[in-house]
Amino acid sequence: MNARGQGTVTYDKTKRKWIARIPMGRRDNGTTIYRKRQASTKREAQVARQALLLERDTQPDCATPIATNETLFKTFADDHMRHEASNELRATTCAGYSYVLHKYVYPTYGNRMLETITSIELAKFFSTMRDDYSASQVNYTRAVMSRIFNAGMTHRLIDDNPIRRTKKMRPRPDDRVLVQPHWTLEECQEALTASAGTPFDLFIRLAIYTGMRHGELLGLFWDDIDLDLRTLTVHRTIAEPKGPRGTDERGTAPYFNEPKTSLGRRTLQLSDDLVNAFVRHRLEQVQVIERTEQWYWTNCVFTSSNGKPFWPSNHSGYFRNFLRANGLRHIRVHDIRHSFAVNALELGIDLPSISRALGHSSLQITMDVYGRGAGALQNRATDGIANYFGRDSTK
Q: What are phi and psi of 297, to 5 degrees?
């Protein structure tokens, strides 16, 4: 079949679909580029083939595919992230995807047409990338690219997602691992003792007692705290743009965002220890304001030395210094969230209560993340019931 042939209609037993396929032109290496459509019946596939032929033959020149703005990977991906993805994903997620595309993907595939990118070259691309980056980073890049190809399929710019024929990368023992084992109850107690009388007094207590996300903690306003009712309400999170700072309007300061999940907007009860910690923190902040020449009032509970919100990455650095200075085992702030969940399970707190406190969108997510601990609780429950009736049966 030459590049100007009339195409074919065939049945794919694997997909259980009729496939209409016509040639659209040739690549530089001489291989033919095809355009495909799937259909449920042979008749529909024949109609689809005629429609594809009409599209091809009404183009001014179909000897080779035309690299329009709509089919270039970079242009299409940027348009998708700016419009469709921004309506489906959180701003921070979109920013992360765009950062990955610009840093890892566009240098190689930015000026390539969507339909010319094959799974074979993508497999080589991910394998080469794996030489310098962790498996999780490569797999994250793979997932971002897969989203772009899926969007291309939705708009019928391509007929297949080549990412589906590539394999995820497996972690290696020498990979750098960010996630650290959670703090035990004893380690949590050591951290609470070490934080007393330091700027991390309230922060450490909130993280250990509530399991709030780092961005939720730094995004707390004083208006979110009701010491009379002894409640804290999560209304927002704080995030920072990816890449170098100060490159655009959003790159000059961290920004506030909606909670991560639909149930992320939640109200938590404060213990006596937390109420007292809030009172201490407020008094200390007032003293700082009085001796600071220029204080930016942002209503944030946790602020930098001039009252502005913390950059999360800066605060993570201060947190690491706090751990090092007090001889505490290093974990990320987010790992304290895991510590809250695992320790709560070990103390016998029910999973739905833990899920609501964490702000997970569903109980299933909590089960997926902490399934091993939940399984231990399940075994404890079944053993307890069996032991109870077993004891009675021996009488």
A: -80, 110
